[in-house]
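Q: A small favour: would you put together sequence and structure tokens for a protein?
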Amino acid sequence: MAAPPATGASDSSPGYVMVEGHRVVEGTTIGEWGKTKDGELFSYTYKAGEAKPAAAPAAPAAARCSVYISDVKFLGGGANAWFQWETSQVCSGSFGSQKLQTQMWRSSWSGPRGYHDWRGTRSTTNQFIDYGWSSDCNDGGGTYTYYPVMKGYASGIGWGPTTRSDNELRKGCGTREP
């Protein structure tokens, strides 16, 4: 496998950078996690286009995964309104298979709550997963702040940290997806 372009290397589209060989909107939060050759687990986040933090392992990892979740969009209107977002994960090294899960969260007085149950992809041995998601709006059900989250899994490493979108939307979609 050819080495991916360096984090922050630009492609021909303004506002985008290459991260692990994939085009990502500059400034987007990237979650990276994995296991070193010594068996130590690591996890950190950084913004696309910026240098990885000092917490990044200096030695090559036995397996490493990076996750990305897009900003959430609100489309349509009234009874035909929905949220839409995208998730992706790229793994390298000795990881076996991988999958990812996502869930829309909403605000509540006691902390975030799931707007619907966790949804996930099937396991794959591919190095890259990219998937689009949507969640219907329960129009008129009460106003809350909504944002999607995701977490990735790779065999031999386990589950990565929960990563949320960089934006959130205040909408009247109620406490639970219809």
Observations:
- The CA atoms of residues 75 and 82 lie 5 Å apart.
- Confidence is low (pLDDT under 50) at residues 1-12.
